[in-house]
From TrEMBL:
Keywords tagged on the record: ATP-binding, Kinase, Nucleotide-binding, Serine/threonine-protein kinase, Transferase
Signal sequence interval, chain numbering: none
InterPro entries linked: Kinase-like_dom_sf, Prot_kinase_dom, Ser_Thr_kinase
Stated name of the protein: non-specific serine/threonine protein kinase
Organism this protein belongs to: Amborella trichopoda
PANTHER family in the cross-refs: MITOGEN-ACTIVATED KINASE KINASE KINASE, PROTEIN KINASE DOMAIN-CONTAINING PROTEIN
Residues covered by the Protein kinase domain: 21-88
Length: 102
């Protein structure tokens, strides 16, 4: 367990879902879609993105990286889906249904 600057404890395992909270912009559909992408990576690889980092460095990478590392061996369709999930700037009404249709 790590502690952030406000002395709050941070448990591992929920780091991707904290993206919008870290950026101080609140939880939204975009952060939920980001979490879906991370869950897909974990289901396919048996480890979540940034699993090899301690919580605070992982939080830094979540905010600073364009997207989490996407494994090379995935199909083009899954890779495209993950790229869509990890877009930090999305249309105001974008939802997971829209991403699955593209």
């Amino acid at each position: 367990m790590a502690y952030c600057a406000c002395n709050c404890s941070i448990e591992s395992g929920t780091l991707p879902s904290l993206l919008k909270v870290i950026e101080m912009s609140g939880v939204s559909a975009a952060s939920d879609i980001w979490s879906v992408g991370c869950t897909v990576i974990e289901l396919l690889t048996c480890v979540p993105p940034y699993y090899d980092l301690q919580p605070m460095p992982a939080l830094f990478r979540i905010v600073s990286d364009e997207q989490p590392p996407i494994p090379d061996r995935l199909s083009p369709g899954i890779t495209d889906f993950l790229h869509q999930c990890f877009r930090k700037v999305r249309l105001p009404k974008c939802c997971l249904y829209d991403i699955c249709r593209t």
